[in-house]
């Protein structure tokens, strides 16, 4: 009979616990036949081979990281399977408390590893050693994978998500003409595909920096095309919409019908305000993509709300500035705003981290001082038509569009008092935190 071997020791497990559970198996393990020195030399040769293969390109780095995580997951699964089997022989209870404890410890360990990695990434962003784009790509790739296995209706912020979707639906409906050609920058997983379908557009071009989000958007469109009978043409591409010209991205998308009637950036423009060069490149991309009379719409964190919150701290406050509630959290590492008489010394690169339950896990974002955005848009031939907080926009526009909303959309934003809207902690994290805007292209600008 083959000798039963002990499973590998889980990283979070103490040596004492491991010996207690598997000491009897460790004692049974036999030494390999032949010369031990030969075995050791072979092991060293294998390690050297692994070292030689390590990291030649970023792609290989990613593959090696994924293999490591998969191996770690296998170790945990084998460990849990073995321990639960051994314990069940004693407890004779397949749902023992010990088994659930191991499951919790596994999840806790993996979560801590992820948080540690995110903190390291954030430290590099703050110190200028890496670009925020790398963190954003990792975050949204992970969110895409998580969303495949989660039920949206079970989200703890489902009311907030429903409210945000109503805001976007009204904004899109208000400014999207019939048979429009729409360009959505930072399109994510294509969450607004149905909204555009209900507004009878002719073409939707979606671009995003996350390759996994683009693939998920393609899958979603094919599904919705059958379920919702979406009839417009969809074109998807992957690339940096903010830091680089759109030319190289759309070069391989010959069916795009530029210039467009509408450009949309939803909950993403704040990443462009890392630097002035990046912000200007973004607005240049918008302007070059629009025809005269075309509209530029978006949803962004409201800089006036951020000012309101920051001004609650005394000028001599010398710790990282943070606030939030059960739904969201904001943290500014720097307190320069306070020292500079409650003003930003530079409208670009004002970094904070943002947490939103079941959506955003302490991802770095940048303040968009709205007057700076308006000024840049003016430089590229875009005039401001409208800017309102979510609260004001909903109050002004919801009565006009209520009859156009589906029963499910309306039921999703019914408050406890029977009225429509959002309340409690979710209200501050959405209705107060964000604003909507619309610019119109009124002139062409000589752009090199």
UniProtKB/TrEMBL annotation:
Please note every region of biased composition (Acidic residues).
43-54
Region (Disordered) residue ranges read: 24-54, 80-100
The keyword Zinc appears for this protein:
no
State its Enzyme Commission number(s): 2.1.1.56
Residues binding mRNA, per UniProt: 164-165
Positions with a binding annotation for S-adenosyl-L-methionine = 168, 186, 208, 240, 266, 271
Gene Ontology cellular component list: cytosol; nucleus
Q: Does the keyword Nucleus apply?
A: yes
Q: What domain of life does the native source organism fall in?
A: Eukaryota
Domain MRNA cap 0 methyltransferase per the UniProt entry, residue ranges: 155-442
Family assignment? Answer: Belongs to the class I-like SAM-binding methyltransferase superfamily. mRNA cap 0 methyltransferase family.
Know the name of this protein? mRNA cap guanine-N(7) methyltransferase
């Amino acid at each position: 009979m083959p000798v039963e071997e002990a499973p590998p020791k889980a990283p979070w497990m103490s040596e004492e616990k491991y010996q207690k559970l598997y000491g009897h198996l460790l004692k049974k393990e036999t030494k390999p036949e032949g010369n031990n020195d030969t075995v050791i030399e072979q092991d060293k040769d294998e390690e050297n081979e692994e070292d030689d293969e390590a990291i030649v390109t970023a792609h290989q780095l990613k593959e090696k990281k994924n293999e490591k995580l998969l191996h770690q997951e296998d170790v945990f699964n084998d460990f849990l399977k073995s321990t639960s089997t051994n314990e069940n022989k004693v407890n004779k209870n397949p749902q023992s408390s010990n088994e659930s404890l191991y499951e919790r410890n596994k999840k806790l360990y993996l979560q801590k590893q992820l948080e540690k990695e995110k903190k390291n990434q954030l430290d590099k962003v703050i110190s200028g050693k890496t670009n925020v784009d790398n963190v954003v790509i990792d975050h949204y790739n992970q969110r895409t994978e998580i969303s495949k296995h989660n039920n949206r209706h079970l989200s703890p912020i489902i009311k907030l998500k429903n409210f945000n979707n109503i805001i976007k639906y009204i904004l899109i409906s208000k400014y999207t003409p019939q048979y429009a050609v729409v360009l959505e920058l930072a399109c994510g997983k294509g969450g607004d595909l149905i909204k555009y379908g209900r507004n009878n557009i002719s073409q939707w071009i979606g671009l995003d920096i996350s390759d996994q989000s683009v693939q998920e958007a393609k899958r979603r469109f094919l599904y919705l095309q059958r379920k919702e009978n979406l009839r417009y043409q969809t074109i998807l591409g992957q690339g940096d919409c903010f830091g680089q010209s759109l030319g190289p991205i759309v070069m391989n998308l010959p069916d795009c019908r530029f210039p467009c009637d509408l450009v949309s950036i939803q909950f993403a423009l704040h990443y462009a305000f890392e630097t002035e060069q990046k912000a200007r490149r973004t607005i240049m991309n918008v302007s070059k993509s629009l025809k005269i009379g075309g509209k530029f719409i978006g949803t962004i964190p409201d800089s006036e709300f951020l000012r309101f919150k920051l001004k609650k701290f005394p000028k001599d406050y010398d710790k990282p500035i943070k606030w939030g509630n059960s739904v969201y959290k904001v943290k500014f590492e720097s307190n320069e705003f306070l020292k500079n008489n409650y003003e930003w010394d530079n409208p670009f690169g004002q970094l904070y981290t943002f947490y939103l339950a079941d959506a955003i896990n302490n991802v770095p974002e940048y303040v968009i001082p709205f007057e700076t955005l308006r000024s840049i848009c003016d430089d590229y031939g875009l005039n401001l038509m409208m800017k309102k907080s979510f609260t004001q926009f909903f109050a002004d526009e919801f009565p006009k569009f209520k009859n156009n909303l589906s029963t499910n959309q309306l039921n999703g934003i019914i408050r406890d008092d029977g009225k429509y809207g959002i309340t409690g902690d979710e209200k501050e994290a959405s209705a107060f935190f964000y604003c909507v805007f619309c610019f119109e292209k009124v002139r062409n600008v000589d752009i090199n």
